[in-house]
Amino acid sequence: MATRKIKEKAKLLTSHLLEAAVEDIDYANGKFFVRGFPETHKTIQDIALMANVAWNMPQGMEPGSRRRPSTTRRTSSIHSARHVAVVEVDPETGHIELKRYVAVDDCGHQINPMIVEGQVHGGVVQGIGQALWEAARSTTTTASCSPDR
After folding, report:
1. Which of 28, 42, 83, 109 has the smallest CB count inside 10 Å?
2. Any residues with CB less than 8 A from the CB of 43 and at least 6 apart, and which?
3. What is the pLDDT of residues 100-112, one digit of tens each?
4. Helices (H) and strands (E) in the chain — how many of each?
5. Nearest CA to 126 among 87, 83, 80?
6. Where are the domains of the chain?
């Protein structure tokens, strides 16, 4: 829905810039143009720039090109996952050995299971890395700067 709103706004802005009726604006191959005259066009990049610099906008149009979809959906999307790590900790050295890791994710219909598996693997490795090997340390740095610089 957000894409549709952006495209509608882009057509309105293109119609203003090309001085044509909004219903006569077509879109193809990354370009907005007046139907029948594709050689006179505005690219997506042109429209995004114009929407953000906002110096030649139709009256009443808000600047910017970002949109969030409004929805009337009454249900929410619920992700269900469980991850269990079996670890062995040496109480004398604090060394941790990961013995087994099991992840179960219910992500619905998988269009490409290899991508889903790769995402789970990446997330698991990132989580293990953060939990066991990464640290946040506070450092104090003193910098001096003379007013002449």
Report:
1. 109
2. 30, 31, 32
3. 988 888 877 888 8
4. 3, 5
5. 83
6. 2-53, 80-108+115-132
What's the pTM?
0.43
- In 3D, which of 39, 43, 63, 44 has the Cα closest to residue 53? 63
Signed CA dihedral, 122, 128, 133, 134: sign only: positive
- Identify the residue whose tokens are 């999307």: 77
Determine the pLDDT at residue 52.
77
Query: Tokens 């079996």, residue?
Result: 86
Question: Phi and psi for 37 in degrees, rounded to 5?
Answer: -135, 65
* Helix, strand and coil in the chain, % to nearest 5: 35, 25, 45
Side chain identity, residue 51? A
Q: Three-class SS of residue 110?
A: coil
**Closest alpha carbon to 47 in 67, 26, 30, 28:** 30
10 Cβ neighbours under 8 A, 6+ residues apart: 27, 32, 44, 47, 51, 65
